[in-house]
Amino acid sequence: MSRVLVPLMETIFLSAVIIALYCVTQTHCTKVAVLPDNVNMEESNLETYIVYLKKPQILDSAKLRVLHAWYYSFLPLTTARAEKESRMVDMYRNVITNFTARLTVEEVKTTKRKAGVVFVTPENPLLLHTTWSYHFLGLSQSDVGLWKGSNFGSLSHLKGLVPKVLH
């Protein structure tokens, strides 16, 4: 590329990032919930919720840092940034735009009303029950019999592997 185009492209890219940050802060950060003074975070029950969001077009090409800042804008306003970061459990971006966070019931109600939120649902962890699962096969560390007798697959390269069981 020519020496003139590279600085021009960098300027355009930086301008786009600044515009994206401005749009995100104008549409979401101004709507951050402020908790009432009588809500004590120590006494409140924090539960893990999955917050599904409508992905704005401007974030399609945004950097991961911009996307994370956008996710954090949906969390309630807190006095300490460290507390806000500890409330965020995980963030997703490849298939669906959502995040998981530890929220109170009051915060969930406030979050549901924000623009861009599709829905909020409690996390419901599922146990894995496949033929690769020790418990599915009826094996556990305390069992007696062949599994324990084999020292749970004592060969170093086979340690912990369950042989396939044919029905």
UniProtKB/TrEMBL annotation:
Pfam family, one: Inhibitor_I9
Database matches in Gene3D superfamilies: Peptidase S8 propeptide/proteinase inhibitor I9
Tree of life domain: Eukaryota
Signal sequence bounds: 1-29
Domain Inhibitor I9, residue spans: 48-129
InterPro entries hit by this protein: S8pro/Inhibitor_I9, S8pro/Inhibitor_I9_sf
Keywords for the protein's UniProt record, in alphabetical order: Signal
Protein name stated in the entry: Peptidase S8, subtilisin-related
Source organism of the structure: Parasponia andersonii
